[in-house]
Design a protein that fits this description.
Layout (H helix, E strand, L loop, with lengths): L1 H16 L2 H8 L1 H24 L8 E5 L6 E2 L1 H9 L6 H10 L3 E2 L3 H10 L3 E9 L3 H10 L8 E5 L7 H10 L12 E7 L16 H4 L4 E3 L19
Parallel strand pairs: 1-4, 1-6, 4-5, 6-7
Antiparallel strand pairs: 2-3
This protein binds magnesium ion (MG).
Length: 237
């Protein structure tokens, strides 16, 4: 009887525990401050490079950004899934994307505006599927985040066409995720997941460790990620 009573007390707490991450993203000054801080750093570093190297539009420099929880805020989808006690699955996710109701991650709009203003282009490299291409582009466009020279590189039915492949295409200028054969000079990568960033092996001489805060800019996402499926933090050596 005592155990049952304890369980009854715990149940509401358990039911709400999972919502804390979404509340933090939507309502806390800490999340808002942190994303603005990351984007301010990214803007500063990108503009410092364009000014130091006198890069202009013709130099074809770009920034590579993820979309979900990097540029667009899908916390309403998380709330909706919580209300239905449901988990992520492609059908509800694509339906959400089609609604084009995602908000903007704080600071993302100022960063994108600064890149466009300085003559840069944006490659949106996302694991949203090709079927929601137009909805995604329209959602970005509604906030003035889409520039006419930007590209949107989505996932296809080919599982092997991952972000590594798409990033390689845009750097080499060969493939669908590129500007018609022109290799792009990437000044910054922004994402909320570790796989949004090239690692040693993908790009010659790149060591992720040295890039954080200079060319790699990581945003917090406590709502979902590969960390849910296992420990992703490296063990101490
Ligand atoms: Mg993301």
């Amino acid at each position: 009887m005592k155990a049952a009573a304890a369980l009854l007390i715990l149940l509401p707490l358990t039911a709400h525990a999972g919502d804390k991450s979404t509340r933090w993203v939507r309502d806390s000054i800490e999340y808002h401050t942190l994303t603005n801080q990351v984007y301010a750093g990214a803007t500063r570093e990108v503009l410092a490079t364009t000014e130091a190297e006198k890069l202009k539009k013709k130099d074809h420099w770009v920034v590579v950004v993820d979309v979900d929880e990097t540029i667009l805020d899908n916390s309403v989808y998380q709330l909706q899934m919580g209300a239905y006690d449901a988990s992520f699955e492609p059908a509800s996710w694509n339906a959400w994307c089609e609604r084009r109701e995602a908000a903007v991650v704080p600071g993302a709009d100022a960063f994108i505006a600064a890149v466009h203003e300085a003559g840069g282009k944006v490659a949106f490299v996302t694991n949203r599927h090709e079927v929601v291409r137009e909805a995604t582009r329209a959602n970005l466009d509604a906030f003035g985040l889409w520039g006419k020279d930007d590209i949107l590189c989505l996932k296809t039915d080919d599982e092997a066409y991952d972000k590594v492949k798409r990033r390689t295409e845009l750097r080499t200028g060969e493939g669908a995720c590129s500007w018609e054969g022109k290799p792009a000079r990437v000044l910054a990568y922004v994402g909320d997941t570790i796989t949004d960033f090239p690692e040693a092996g993908e790009e010659e001489g790149v060591d992720r460790g040295a890039q954080w805060g200079t060319t790699y800019f990581l945003l917090p996402n406590p709502m979902y990620g590969s960390w849910e499926r296992g420990v992703t933090r490296p063990m101490p050596e």
